[in-house]
Amino acid sequence: MIKISNLTKQFNSHKSLNNVNIEFQKNDHIALMGPNGAGKTTLIRSIMGYYHPTSGEILINGKDPIKNRTEVLKIISFVPQLPPPIKLNLDELIKYIERSSNVNKELILHYANEMKLDIKSNLYKSFFKLSGGMKQKMLIAISLARKSDIIIYDEPTANLDPKARDDFYRLLKEDKNEKISLFVTHRLEEVKKIVNRQVYMDLGEIVINKKIKEIL
Ligand SMILES: Nc1ncnc2c1ncn2[C@@H]1O[C@H](COP(=O)(O)OP(=O)(O)OP(=O)(O)O)[C@@H](O)[C@H]1O
């Protein structure tokens, strides 16, 4: 469970988050929306313990994400909008994830295959030399294979072609692992088959927080 209480995050004099109160429970699949600068990224970074709150509290399964960062990050999978510049090749990356997160390598290969990412031909290529879409597919495959309690996707389909987008949404729909999934998106239409809740932010505040119709 994610419990956010009276969370304010201020950068200099600007409040990026202004007294945010919200809870997410298992089986909440949320479209996190709002205009540029609304505070969405600040909120997800705070959840992952990247930022110290100016005031207020965040608890992830009862744990503070700053004091218990390693523990909290073990149960969160995050796919950013811009993939990080990882120098490892795919073989090294998969082995690293296998060791550090106890993820089954076969499961990563399975999801990569489902995302139509040809791992075999790219096994010894550095992650950062893959195309934008290939990087995204790799990170998605890892995020699904980790079977985390919480998955956070920040505009994950920005670099994906339409077929890959369909594959991504199909895999999420088929994934029966109980979890919280949070999608930062500007297009509700695109995620409406996989979300059951909409949260809309503006000027650092939550202005809409509602259940939407059951997942189709
Ligand atoms: N590290 C930072 N230092 C200073 N200001 C920041 C920092 N991170 C975010 N902000 C400010 O906080 C506000 C919210 O930014 P944030 O990135 O959370 O918005 P967002 O909703 O994710 O926007 P977008 O849709 O453009 O990604 C903006 O005014 C931004 O300039």
From TrEMBL:
Keywords: ATP-binding, Nucleotide-binding, Transport. InterPro entries: AAA+_ATPase, ABC_transporter-like_ATP-bd, ABC_transporter-like_CS, ABC_Transporter_VariousFunc, P-loop_NTPase. It comes from the Bacteria. It comes from Halarcobacter anaerophilus. SUPFAM superfamilies: P-loop containing nucleoside triphosphate hydrolases (SSF52540). This is ABC transporter ATP-binding protein. One of its GO terms (molecular function) is ATP binding. PROSITE patterns: ABC_TRANSPORTER_1, ABC_TRANSPORTER_2. Residues 2-216 form the ABC transporter domain.
